[in-house]
Automatic annotation (TrEMBL), chain A:
This is Eukaryotic translation initiation factor 3 subunit C. Component of the eukaryotic translation initiation factor 3 (eIF-3) complex, which is composed of 13 subunits: EIF3A, EIF3B, EIF3C, EIF3D, EIF3E, EIF3F, EIF3G, EIF3H, EIF3I, EIF3J, EIF3K, EIF3L and EIF3M. The eIF-3 complex appears to include 3 stable modules: module A is composed of EIF3A, EIF3B, EIF3G and EIF3I; module B is composed of EIF3F, EIF3H, and EIF3M; and module C is composed of EIF3C, EIF3D, EIF3E, EIF3K and EIF3L. EIF3C of module C binds EIF3B of module A and EIF3H of module B, thereby linking the three modules. EIF3J is a labile subunit that binds to the eIF-3 complex via EIF3B. It is found in: Cytoplasm. InterPro entries: EIF3C (IPR027516), EIF3C_N_dom (IPR008905), EIF3CL_C (IPR058999), PCI_dom (IPR000717), WH-like_DNA-bd_sf (IPR036388), WH_DNA-bd_sf (IPR036390). It comes from Bos taurus.
From TrEMBL, chain B:
The keyword Cell membrane does not apply. InterPro entries: eIF3h (IPR027524), eIF3h_C (IPR045810), JAMM/MPN+_dom (IPR000555), JAMM_MPN+_peptidase_M67A (IPR050242), MPN (IPR037518). Belongs to the eIF-3 subunit H family. The modification Phosphoserine is found at residue 197. One of its GO terms (biological process) is formation of cytoplasmic translation initiation complex. Residues 36-46 have a biased composition (Gly residues). SMART domains: JAB_MPN (SM00232). Residues 22-35, 284-303 have a biased composition (Low complexity). This is Eukaryotic translation initiation factor 3 subunit H. One of its GO terms (cellular component) is eukaryotic 48S preinitiation complex. Keywords: Cytoplasm, Initiation factor, Phosphoprotein, Protein biosynthesis. It comes from the Eukaryota.
Amino acid sequence: FTSTCPFLFISNRPLLLSEDEEDTKRVVRSAKDKRFEELTNLIRTIRNAMKIRDVTKCLEEFELLGKAYGKAKSIVDKEGVPRFYIRILADLEDYLNELWEDKEGKKKMNKNNAKALSTLRQKIRKYNRDFESHITNYKQNPEQSADEDAEKNEEDSEGSSDEDEDDDGVTAAAFLKKKSEAPSGDSRKFLKKEDEDEDSEESEDSEAWDTSSTSSDSDSEEEEGKQTVLASRFLKKAPTTEEDKKAAEKKREDKAKKKHDRKSRRPDEEEEDNEGGEWERVRGGVPLVKEKPKMFAKGTEITHAVVIKKLNEILQARGKKGTDRAAQIELLQLLVQIASENNLGEGVIVKIKFNIIASLYDYNPNLATWWVPEMWQKCLDCINELMDILFANPNIFVGENILEESENLHNADQPLRVRGCILTLVERMDEEFTKIMQNTDPHSQEYVEHLKDEAQVCAIIERVQRYLEEKGTTEEVCRIYLRRILHTYYKFDYKAHQRQLTPPEGSSKSEQDQAENEGEDSAVLMERLCKYIYAKDRTDRIRTCAILCHIYHHALHSRWYQARDLMLMSHLQDNIQHADPPVQILYNRTMVQLGICAFRQGLTKDAHNALLDIQSSGRAKELLGQGLLLRSLQERNQEQEKVERRRQVPFHLHINLELLECVYLVSAMLLEIPYMAAHESDARRRMISKQFHHQLRVGERQPLLGPPESMREHVVAASKAMKMGDWKTCHSFIINEKMNGKVWDLFPEADKVRTMLVRKIQEESLRTYLFTYSSVYDSISMETLSDMFELDLPTVHSIISKMIINEELMASLDQPTQTVVMHRTEPTAQQNLALQLAEKLGSLVENNERVFDHKQGTYGGYFRDQKDGYRKNEGYMRRGGYRQQQSQTAY
Amino acid sequence: KHNAHAQGVPLRRKMASRKEGTGSSATSSSSTTGAAGKGKGKGGSGDSAVKQVQIDGLVVLKIIKHYQEEGQGTEVVQGVLLGLVVEDRLEITNCFPFPQHTEDDADFDEVQYQMEMMRSLRHVNIDHLHVGWYQSTYYGSFVTRALLDSQFSYQHAIEESVVLIYDPIKTAQGSLSLKAYRLTPKLMEVCKEKDFSPEALKKGNITFEHMFEEVPIVIKNSHLINVLMWELEKKSAVADKHELLSLASSNHLGKTLQLLMDRVDEMSQDIVKYNTYMRNTSKQQQQKHQYQQRRQQENMQRQSRGEPPLPEEDLSKLFKPHQPPARMDSLLIAGQINTYCQNIKEFTAQNLGKLFMAQALQEYNS
């Protein structure tokens, strides 16, 4: 094994160098060098991987190592198997066996690692068979080889530095060559990562240095101690955290000591370090030049032309691959600074600002990503500044139709003309804002922070609106109005609401209140903006959106009739299916809001009708753009999903789905329960609300009925109570703490809604009661009813009268005694059944006779139709007969 | 209904093995084989093998107990009847229930269970010969395909077997309702052929009235038990509840009407199906006829031209005859409707009687 001793060739070197055939010789030696270096590099990587238990990496590197060894075969044949090679093989095998035994650790390992582990273990077992004798040899006296290896390492670096110093000329070149060659191989990525890896590498080094330093200090005296150190190294494979820490600390100490050692012992080493450091610094510096880019050469006179030229230069890079977009923005900002410093006039600044904003928008390469807050803030500031300039200089004309050529940026005599469209910028800004909101977790503080920016967005839109009202075309005004509307329609105007509640004669209000109430009501504002759009807009889309927002706003503020009339007048219900999805979502939102509004007004039927479409689909969430359904995820591809994601409504615009469902179910209950009671025995009764029936059935299927928990359970329980005419229980199920928290408190006028609801429940319960139990009564006094349902007499009277008029209740009112006298004309359950049976039998007979007809051969043609008609008549008569018979026999 | 069907399938399977059972039992008791042989002789003459069913009180009580413990709502309980045939009288002396099997123990072997049961009963010297089966019913709805199939396989294997139908609801109202049914020999023949086409049924001259025959039932107790009953009647502290006289009838009537209506609906559908079939066949007939005529004309023309006539083609291949709908189901439905109607008739007649009685009483009192 002496052949691997580094002394040999290093000491040989100067001798060989001096020889004539140095070139060829050196080639041979450098080949060996190269091979071995390759091997050691690989081994180092493996050791690193071992340390972080990255078995996959180990496997990779081991395979490379095997290959490299194969390449080095010729040298190995000559020189014998290198010690360090045997060492890594033995170590790796031990390491793997240890890992293999460690069941716990194996379980924790990820799949790839576990797989790699078993593969590697098998491979190394097979591989090591060839080196069996070497390995046993090594295992018998590991310290020696480790020693040697370390020594070799040490000597290697020493040698190379020595080399550097000793023979400057040829060897230096050779060294450099080698250096530049080495990274080109496998270790290139290793070198690249040097910055981060340095630490680990060094610690790895320290291991080597550690042993080496002791060994060099006291050659073979402390064999025992070294062995323990070595043992601890091996044992450290699965350390507990504490041990780990200690070890790390020790290592650090070692490192420090080592450094110290190194410095004190070999001053030349430092030099090499320095050299290396310098070299590294240069490498790091190349990609990012942190210096401020120089715009103009010093001393250049800054004129319009120069600035514009520079601007164009910068803009040329825009959109090209490899352009650093952040740097571009910075450049532009610098340019603005320069321009303003040199008083180049507002025109240029406006022009550059436009471009800054445009490049800000460009910053994100695709539509799906959104801005980081800093970018957003920058954009807002920029737009604000731009607006400041535009307001301050009314002589600047801005427009997208102004051609580049006809721009006038500096001629102060004429009005300044700048190409660019402030409206587009603002619209884009608004979209970006929506995007930010869509992509922020709605339950985080971050969302609130973002939401605070909404005021800024609104302010900007307002400014632009004012600006455009002066200068823009009607079309532009319409567009900016729509933006304004979109930021207004969903907000409940508490101030106006307050003002409504407190009548205007209360002039004793404080000044502050007055100030607070400044500004027009959002209702007035909406009215004004929408009317303008209705009158002036020529694109259908803006008008549709405006109408929908207007309706939504009306509905939100409980102006039901205005909202309804607007909806009916617009005929949107007929052609909304041709609109694009975002408008459809807006339409759905509007319909839902309309339904909720109707409910607040106590118009259950209207509420039910408005909500029916949305609720019956079971996809309310999707239809309102408030989330994607998981179930249809597999049905759409990535692209569609992205598009749908972009359509989502930001969280602060959401309509509470539970509230929506509750409103729907409660109105369905108020409609359906009396209806069910009235048509108990009707075979052909239809369902008013499938959804509601579904919920009822779900409730019935429950094997054990506990107290209601969810909103749905509450409604189902209430429905059951209502079926019995028990309005008090019904009331307590619908209005209680839980439901208040979940639903009712969400309304602006919660108490009003609750009172309305109680009254509705009382009325409908009364109706249900009368339907269900009228057959039990001969007569019932209205006073009793009014007591039972806590309704006043006139109400009871009117409800009963209505029922009698509608022929729902067969009864008459006895005025003097205030009683309802039942007529008992409706058939009993049996009679009803008998009637149904008779009907069925009729059809059966008809069918049967058709078969008979067929046999008779009178098939088809005019004659049969006539006969059919006749038979129908007869059937009817017969049925009548049955009815009489039945009612006689039942008693 | 579904449940009954599920029970019916294993029954058939069981009956296949039942034959071996009779074989083995025949060697053990010669008297029963003699009786069976006699029954067979009678059956051969076209008459029914059994003229009367005599049931032990024990059996009745066991059936009632079985339903009360396991049956509920529309669920149906079933069991095996044991006994022997004496002349033209079938004596049912014991029974045991089929265990209620659930889906999760699918490997439960019913045949094994029954054989085991019968063997055990023989060990304690109880009649162990299979003479039929019993089933509970829900408002008299028992005329089903499952019952037909089961009873057919029973009667096929053991001539004299009967099915006892127990109506728990009527029983609860105060009148024990237990009926023994057998398939008529005509129906047996049709079932053997397994041909339920309209023609076959027509040929067999089977109508819904002639599907099942009811066998009169006698409930018999041993003298010892009779004595005990007398003894108990005196001591019994339970007040006589005359549920028989209850005037409330609407519920029962309503339920029956509902069921009747469902069957009528089914019947209606069946008729529509049949109608469609008729129409289709006649349409096809017409097409066939037209085709034949065209062929004939063409042949005539060819003949006049001196050409050879076209080869005859298989018409049945060209016009595949439509599959006629099986009539058995409609027959069964009709049978069921008939049962319902009789139930209702009986029920209303009784009720009318009760009402008149109540009226008379009231008049008398006032």
